[in-house]
Structure formats: structure tokens, C-alpha cells
Amino acid sequence: MTQADAVVERLGAEYFSDPYSAHARLRARHPVAPVIMPGGMPAWLVTGYPQARAALADPRLLKLPKGWRPEPDSLLAALELHMLSSDPPDHERLRKLVNKAFTPRRVEQLRPRIAAITEELLDDMSAQRDVDLLASFAFPLPITVICELLGVPVADRDQFRAWSATIVSSTVSPEVFQADATAMIGYFRALLAARRREPADDMLSALITARDNTDRLSENELLSMAFLLMVAGHETTVNLIASGMLALLLHPGELTRLRADRSLLGAAVEELLRYVNPVNNATLRFAGEPVELGGMPIGPGEVVLVSLAGADRDPARYPHPDRLDLGRESGGHVAFGHGIHYCLGAPLARLEAEIAFGGLLGRYPDMMLAVSPDELRWRPSTLIHGLESLPVRLAP
């Protein structure tokens, strides 16, 4: 297929609730396809597994448009100067400064605290028969962990939930985005100023004093890093826990299998990452020069969206990809990305999910969905794929 032969598909609001059907349709036509995303942005959407892996590791696909930098005093400078939106050599410098906090060994040390938070939340739910599992458990667990890790007051977590929902939304107005993003950055400015006056044993304090050789983070880099760690540090895991539990409830055979054999928990987390893919599409990439991807010519400056959810349901890589199979060999999935931007928080997300699913299955073995699946609503985002709420009945 040539670029001239490609049919440009316009993705509508249905893409938010069911991206998988769109990915399958596009992949059958071509694994690298031109689309108009909800909101009107033209992009090349990559839905094939080998093409996605290639794109995620291609240095010609940049995280910032070639030659572009945000104005120093702009809101974008406070939001975009983090490692996920950076290209080499800035990327290596920024990532190195936080890498030590997320090594598997350091993350494993958090296990007792994560288990304690999980038990507290499970206890809090026990007084109710019907709960919104997302609001009562899937959200507060990872947001509490990342708040404590960074040094953000846990009491402010609901405010961050609202700000984060705005940041990842594909339908919010520019005015609302501007207002909420400005409020969040203002919050971090004040918190960083407080940590400069009174350092604490937390990651924000460490970032303030961090040096890579003699290179201190600029103020905008500090703000951007705080923003990234806070939002990315909970969004993926919130949606993994909620969407993963929904998938299990909708596949009672696999749920029974997991309840009967807890040794499957690690494999179950990997299969759920592949199956529900909390991050639907990786963040934007821009062709820095002419690129051929999957046989499609992509021009300089054009936007490339790598569909992690699409790649992980490519039947060429995973037979019967739309079937949840906890015994499947799910290795190699790209739920956390691939290449230099592979998710730094992957060990933490895996640990939180393992403890969360184990706790829920142990405490509430008879949990069931409290509404029809058709009544569930999905967040209006092309970046993440997550539920608005998850009503469940804890016991018959």
C-alpha cells in the first residue's frame, strides 16, 4: 500500500469505549494507517505489533517536533520538559536522576507499605455491600503510594484526580485544560518552594538537590518531572486495577482459575496488562525526517501514534488476542512501551497490581459486577483507556 492508496479513517467518540474494534479494523487494512483522531488531529496510527516495536525504538521519531522548544515562561514549558517528552541527550540526563528510585530492589522495599494501604482500603469497604471499586480502591491505592513517595500530601489526592482527568481528556475545552493545568503547576511551585525551605525524605526533595555530574534540574524541568511522576505514577495502575478486575469479572472461568491457583498472580498481571492495556496509545511522536514504517512513507513533522493496545492484540503476535487467557505466554507485550521511553514505573505498577488483585480475591471471593456491562462508561481519552466508575457487589 502507498500513501496515496491509504483511506483516512475518522475515529469518533466510540473509540473511547471500544478502541479494540477500531484497531482490528485498521490493522486488517494496514498496520500503519492514516487517521483523524477524536478531536480532529491527523496522525499515523500504528496497530501492528512488529511495526509498533519498531516505531517505539526508532530515533527518527521524536518526542518534540524537530527544532521546537516551548517558551521558557509558558505553561507548556512547565508541562513538557520531562523525560517522556524529551529526546537524547536530555532524555538520558533526566531519566538518570529518577532511575534509582524505581529499581526492582527499591520498589520491592515498598511491598509492606503497599500491602498495608491495601488492607486499610479493603477494611474500609467491608461496611458496604455495593461499592464503586474505582473510587474506593483502584484510585486511592496507587495515588496514596505515589503521594507518599513524592512527598505530596495524601489529603490532596482527590484534587489531583480531577486535574489528572482533565490532563488526559481528549474532549475537554482549551479553557478548562488551561485552568486545571495552571492550577496543578501552581500547586507544585508552592510545594517545591516548601521543600526548598524544609527538605524531607521524599523524591521531590531529592530532585531539588539532584545532580547529574554538575547539572541541576531547571525550575521548569523540576515542575515537569513532578507533574509526570504524579500523573503517570497513578493513572496506569488505577486503570489496570479497575479494568483488570472488570475483565476478570466478565471472564468467570479465568477468575475461578486465579482464585484456585494464586501462583498465577504474576502471570495474570502480565496478561491483564496485555488485555486491558491501561495506556491505549503512547504519547505523540513526530517524524524528524522522512521515515518508512511498515511500508508507509511518513513525512517530516507528521504525527505518529503508536497504539500499545492495538499492538498487544495483534493476532500475528498473540493468537486469539481478544480472549483473556491467564495461562498465556504474555511476555513481550508493550503495555509499558519499548525502547528508551520504556515506563520507569513498571516495577511499581506490577507490584501494586499483584498486591491489589491478591487482596481483592482473598477478601471478597464472591465479588460480582453490580450493573450491566453496557451501563459502564469509559473516560473520553485517546491516551488512556479507563472506566469512569466500576460498581461492584462485594457479597451476594
Describe this structure in words.
By secondary structure, the protein is α+β, with helices and mostly antiparallel strands. The protein contains 17 helices and 13 strands. The strands form four sheets. Strands 1-2-3-11-8-4 form a six-stranded mixed β-sheet. A hairpin with a 2-residue loop joins strand 6 (211-212) and strand 7 (215-216). The N and C termini lie far apart (55 Å). 42% of the residues are buried. The mean pLDDT is 93.
Strand content: 5-15%
Quickly give the structural class: alpha+beta
Shape: globular
Q: What summary fits the major beta sheet?
A: 6 strands, mixed
Distance between the termini: 55 Å
Mean pLDDT: 93
Task: Give a quick summary of the entry.
By secondary structure, this protein is α+β, with helices and mostly antiparallel strands. It has 17 helices and 13 strands.
Helix and strand arrangement:
Elements: E1 9-10, H1 14-17, H2 19-29, E2 32-36, E3 42-46, H3 49-56, E4 61-62, H4 75-80, H5 90-99, H6 104-108, H7 111-125, E5 130-132, H8 133-138, H9 140-150, H10 157-168, H11 174-197, H12 203-209, E6 211-212, E7 215-216, H13 219-249, H14 252-260, H15 265-276, E8 285-287, E9 291-293, E10 296-298, E11 303-306, H16 308-311, H17 346-363, E12 368-369, E13 391-393
Parallel strand pairs: 1-2, 3-11
Antiparallel strand pairs: 2-3, 4-8, 5-13, 6-7, 8-11, 9-10, 12-13
Helix pairs in contact: 7-9, 7-17, 9-13, 10-11, 11-13, 13-15, 13-17, 15-17
